[in-house]
Amino acid sequence: MGILVWILAFVPGIIWLVYVYKKDKLEPEPIGWVILVFICGALLVPLCVLIEKPLSSGLGVDTIRTTADAAKVSWFVAGLVEEGAKFLLVIGLVSYRRTFNEPMDGIVYAAAAALGFASAENIIYIKKFGAFVILLRGPLSTLGHMLFSSIWGYAIGKAKFGRENRLSLLAKGFILSAFFHGLYDFLLFTKVLAALAVYLVLTTLRKMLLRMVAEAQAKSPFAESG
Predict the structure, then answer these.
(1) CA-CA distances (angstroms) from residue 159 to 21, 79, 99, 149, 151?
(2) What is the b/e burial string over 144-182, where b = at least 16 CB atoms within 10 angstroms of the residue's CB?
(3) 137, 83 in Cβ contact below 8 A?
(4) Fewer CB within 10 A of the terminal residue: the chain, N end or C end?
(5) Residues 6 or more apart whose Cβ sits within 8 Å of residue 213
(6) How far is CA 167 from CA 156, 159, 160, 162, 171, in A?
(7) Could you tell me the pTM of the whole model?
């Protein structure tokens, strides 16, 4: 069962990572660095668990019982902590590298970190709820992590190569990604038209991702040669 759990947990993330990596057509990132960020993203999960448990307790939430509890955990715990960890990973590990040489690279590395994180989370959920949970987490939560983080990934690329205020861009990108992450979790916790609402959130974010990819590629210094 051990090997099967790992396969079920990681295959959806790998499939989504290949999808994003193929979008990086003009100057693809070194695959070794993309894989490294994916692995490091997975290693963030136990760190986030250590942070989230005392943070939830500090907010007065040990078990989610009310809508207010769901909001606290969704936005102030999961959204901020998990997106913050992935964001700092990409900023600290790869954003300064010479191979990070076009706006699209921010999206690629954000996706790698997010999908590694989501894959490691899948292991926890499979062990807790059984193998069938991956039928929901594969196309929804795993994809969701990628879409949430692509927002700040796009902001990192735009901040590095654009002329706008870098700190403002990074702050807006991070806050927006944390908001959508929290919204997704909140809808699941509260079960308020959850299926329809989650579908609409992910559909909106996917359209945003495709638009960000197109704009990042258009602003690439390799666009003319591509």
Answers:
(1) 21, 22, 16, 15, 12
(2) bbbbbbbbbbbbbbbbbbeeeeeeebbebbbbbbbbbbb
(3) no
(4) N
(5) 23, 104, 107
(6) 10, 8, 10, 12, 6
(7) 0.91
pLDDT in tens, 114-155: 999 999 999 999 988 888 888 878 888 899 999 999 999 999
Name the residue type at position 4. L
Evaluate whether 77 touches 52 at the Cβ level (below 8 Å).
yes
* Tens-digit pLDDT profile for residues 167-226: 999 999 999 999 999 998 998 888 766 666 677 778 888 898 989 999 998 988 887 654
C-alpha to C-alpha distance for 137 and 175, rounded to whole angstroms? 24
Tokens in use for 125? 């959920």
Q: How far apart are CA 180 and CA 1, in angstroms?
A: 34
Q: Where do we find the tokens 């660095």?
A: 33
Nearest to 27 by CA among 75, 96, 79, 99: 99
Q: Give 202's Cβ-side CA count (13 Å radius).
A: 20
Instruction: Return the half-sphere exposure (C-beta side, CA atoms, 13 A cut-off) of residue 76.
Output: 15
